[in-house]
Amino acid sequence: MKKRLFLTILSVLVLVLAACGNTDAEKKEESASKGEEAKAIRIGYFPNMTHIATIVALEKGYFEEQFGSDVKIKTNTFNDGSSFMEAMSTDAIDIGTVGPTPALNTYIKNPKHEIISGAVNGGAVLVVAKDSNINSVKDLVGKKIAIPTFGSTQDVGLIKSLKDAGIDVNQVTKVKQAPADTAALILKGELDGAATQEPWGVNIETTAGAKLLLDENQFAWGSESTNTVVVARSKFTEANPELTKKYLKAHIQAINFINENPDEAIQLFLDHIKAITGKDLSKDEVTKAFDRLKATTDVNEDVIKEMATISKEAGYINSDDIEGLVNLTYLNEVLNEQ
């Protein structure tokens, strides 16, 4: 009896130790430990035109080129910034592209990440139903306007545009709506317009015959507004400074390719979206959307600070102190090496 009990306990201990060993191995693969470079990098992004730098870097193999064969690349796509930042906050992803507003909103509550580069400026617009009597921002009073999610960069951009026109944001009904479904709801008369990013602005114009009320130069902070940034977990960058710089080198390669070969970049974007969603996007629409944005590493910190102030005023965060959120040290080191 004692022998049987001993064997049972021994078996349980073996299983527990094996499980611990597997967990440690998995963690070691996912992230670095005490000076060792990570063996895997988990990249997050959206299947949107404003994330074209990440998409091109993946399609052109720039990440593989920079990381080498010893580092596994794992990707995750997201539909909104809230889910992206939740994944980063729970250590499910290491690095990727997202809007600055979700990044700063999460930073106030859980400052464990940093903006390390810009990715896209501009690329956000305000469209309205073609048969509406909306001809200026002031005409939005009493209307229903779609946003991707509350606290998103487009939401904050809409608030900025309303404030600039002297309109109380409470006079406009904001509706959380997936961009892919917005055109259909505008056609049904359930929405009066949308504050959105590309390629959805052009898609709504084409599919629903919507009017462009504010283009990328007029919406919120205009075409120089930081729309998409590279964000990384602080623990990841601290443990993996060289890997972080290799990511940025691939990011810069992609941006240079986009700006020097726009037609090829657009086709790579179309191919990528087809591969991951099964959807064929109109090349004419995507080309029009592409012309409304600028791929760049620039980060407009003044705009991001104002975004934080607006988010606080809107009640999304309880502070607008984002000191430490933007860290361009790695980017500047890479740029200085070139």
Q: How would you describe this structure to a colleague?
A:
It is found in: Cell inner membrane; Periplasm. The protein is of the alpha/beta class and 338 residues long. It folds into two domains: 37-121 and 225-337, Periplasmic binding protein-like II (D-Maltodextrin-Binding Protein, domain 2, 3-Layer(aba) Sandwich), CATH 3.40.190.10; 124-214, 3-Layer(aba) Sandwich (D-Maltodextrin-Binding Protein, domain 2). Helix content is 49%, strand content 17%. The chain has helices at residues 2-30, 52-60, 62-67, 81-89, 100-109, 153-164, 179-187, 200-208, 234-239, 241-260, 262-277, 283-290, 301-313, 329-337; strands spanning 40-45, 72-77, 95-98, 113-122, 124-128, 144-147, 173-176, 193-197, 211-214, 226-233, 293-295. The strands form two sheets. A six-stranded mixed beta sheet has the order 2-1-3-10-4-11, sandwiched between helices. A five-stranded mixed beta sheet has the order 7-6-8-5-9, sandwiched between helices. Helix 6 links the parallel strand 6 (144-147) and strand 7 (173-176). Helix 4 packs across helix 5 (100-109) and helix 8 packs across helix 12. The model is unreliable at 1-35 (pLDDT under 50).
